C-alpha cells in the first residue's frame, strides 16, 4: 500500500491550473524547512530550539482531509490553530 502524502502547497501554472503532484511541496518538507529557517532567524538571540519546534508545528492543521480539499480549489480552512494548541499543551 502506498503511503499517504500530505502537501503544504500546490503548484500552479500561470493560468492557475494545478501542476502534477511531483511539483507540490510536501508538508513534511515544508515543516522541516520552516523550522530550520525559524531557528536560523532567532540564532541572534538564542531562541533556536523553540523557534525550530514552533516552526514545525505552525501548519500542523494541514494534516487534514479538509486542507487537502482546499489545495484542490475547495474552501479555505483553519490550519494554524492545531499547531498553536499543541505548542500550548507542550508549554512552548
Automatic annotation (TrEMBL):
Q: Which PROSITE patterns match?
A: HD_CAS3
Give the residue range of the signal peptide: none
Name the Pfam families on file.
HD
Q: Which part of the chain is the HD Cas3-type domain?
A: 20-92
Highest rank taxon of the organism: Bacteria
User: What protein name does the entry list?
Assistant: HD Cas3-type domain-containing protein
Show the taxonomic lineage.
Bacteria, Pseudomonadati, Pseudomonadota, Betaproteobacteria, Neisseriales
